[in-house]
Amino acid sequence: MGLGFRNITFLCFFFAVAAGDGEFVSSKKPYIVHMKRHLKPAEYSTHADWYSEHLQSVASVSQDSLLYTYDAAYSGFAAAMSQEEVDSLRGSDFVVGVYEDRVYSLHTTRTPQFLGLDLEIGSLAGINAQGLNQASADVIVGVLDTGVWPESKSFNDANMPDVPARWRGGCQATPDFNPKIHCNKKLIGARFFSKGYEVISSSGSTESPSPRDTDGHGTHTSSTAAGSPVGNASLLGYASGNARGMAPHARIATYRVCWKSGCLGSDILAAMDRAILDGVDVLSMSLGGGSAPYAHDTIAIGAFAAMERGIFVSCSAGNSGPGKSSIANVAPWIATVGAGTIDRDFPAFATLGNGQKFTGVSLYSGKPMAQNKLIELVYAPGKNSSSNLCLTGSLDPAVVRGKVVLCDRGINPRVEKGAVVRDAGGVGMILVNTAANGEELVADSHLIPAVAFGRKTGDIIRNYVTSTKNPSATLSFGGTVFNVKPSPVVAAFSSRGPNTVTPQILKPDLIGPGVNILAAWSLAVGPTGLEKDTRRSPFNIISGTSMSCPHISGLAALLKAAHPKWSPSAIKSALMTTAYTVDNSNSPLRDAADFSLSTPYAHGAGYVDPHRALSPGLVYDASPADYIAFLCSLRYTDEMLHIIVKRANVTCNRYRRFRDPGQLNYPSFSVVFGKNRVVRYTREVTNVDPAGSVYHVLVKTPEGVLATVNPEILEFKKGGDKRTFTVTFVSGRGVKPVASSFGSVVWKNAEHEVKSPVAFSWATA
Q: What gap in Å lies between CA 530 and CA 526, rounded to an integer?
């Protein structure tokens, strides 16, 4: 069985260049080797020395074959080997397993105001804004991504104090990256990890190994988490205002692990290992792929090591929504973040020849179309059956030239469709969703006048163009608007539960801003990411759970600054139990896929609320020992357990285990009814208010499910007090099993509402 280094993707809705056939030509492949760390012979001073010597003596390979030795994140190393060398190594008594690495495919100005971060946020935590800013300067956010564009103003270190003395990281020097010039008191770390990628990539690759970001994605995510304030920021005039990260006074350390053709697990694991040793407080990873058992999940393994050292780990949930069970990064020690909208939009309009006018979205900033001049509209004007999708080479220039083209969304990137239309001579594009994307609207900075619409409007326009003798249209653009209602709305692309790895753990944990987010950008690439896009902008607007993840990472940095003694689990609990599930029109959150009511499988605990998170009242805490008990409840073998825990003296036979993985002290509940109609969970909450308090419980369940809580009142005499309660869920006799239903458990007093979502499912449904 391989270690399951599954396809990892950039979880943003953005164009990425795929590798061509035949690029991977090396006769050797990278492998990750799990060693029995505790058996290191005494004559070796370090594990790295032992790993290197053992690799050379057993597998008969050169020292150059050793790519990485892991310390904090994993017990073992990565090496480039042939199949024969792998077979030799697998025969060693010191080796637990050898797992093939894989190449993984590449899958704000308004946000602070929408989250309330322009207000005196620190006062709710018992400290003023100045005190919170000073404390934030001691918090370090590590970002694993495509690197950083250090010249961006978002990494300005003006008025920042000296770098924390505990920091052990640094910046790597390369021909295009000078640490003395490009790193400062804000950007305190910049490294790159490419050894695994280089083993399998073409020797003719023009990509330079460097911390410098030539993609834009890493610059966007790192500045979202902790970028410095920048005035007059915009994308070519859109979303103009003051841009800043969630924790603008925190430090940033970037770790480049992704390249043009993707990211390798060996490189990701090496970066996590280095970040842990460097001393980051928060790890932000907008990376992911399909779900896998935790012992086979690169990110889960490294994140466990980070959690043990008090590091908060935030990961994107994925962009495979609205499909069921599409969620990624589901380990309970990771904060799994979905995406929602904010109250800013970029309206654009299409007026048809019959007088109908429709509102969509666009970030087109070039020369506008002539006002009130209708232009012929064509649909599927091509040489093959794929011309409705406007794929490269599918359009007939003789039919398209001088016309507006209607294109269906899907298969190729949205911005590429516009380029295809332009190259065929078209003067505009109407991009319409199909059933796969529903009503979700994502704005793009197209190269030609273009407007995007949802499925319902798309159906009307498709019907118009196919039933009208001389269809025509004109496009116009409305700039930036604020206070959009309803907001927030759950993004249709945001990946959904239920959690297939451990159904008793509800995922995602929560959602944050992830649609049309403005943040810093690399000047090595245009806003669309297309090679033919010669425009350059220091800021860009893109969408995805890649964008929501660093929002939560930055907010976790703020909570770490306000409450430095809180564990990663306590911080996650505060973010989850204070999240809200009502939009700005005072209605329940809706799903952009079809504007139906959203559920915890889409939004988790709800949309993040930084103010309330700073003072949550109660938290559900969990220690590394609790997570080990959780893993043992999954019937993990010692070998599987040691891949994650990395301590030979920890075995499930000698360790406590939960009777049910849902017994983990988690801030949400996922109740799975099977043969037994009764599910009972005990939770412990800690009072994080300085004074004593009393809480009463309020439980909501769907029809056919009963719930009792014992006790119904929790009394805390002082801060730090802990109390336990037990919830018993009962599926009524004769209740017809359904796929899922939802409820909540809420502890309330005059100051706080500590809310946990509950998902109910029936194994026989």
A: 7
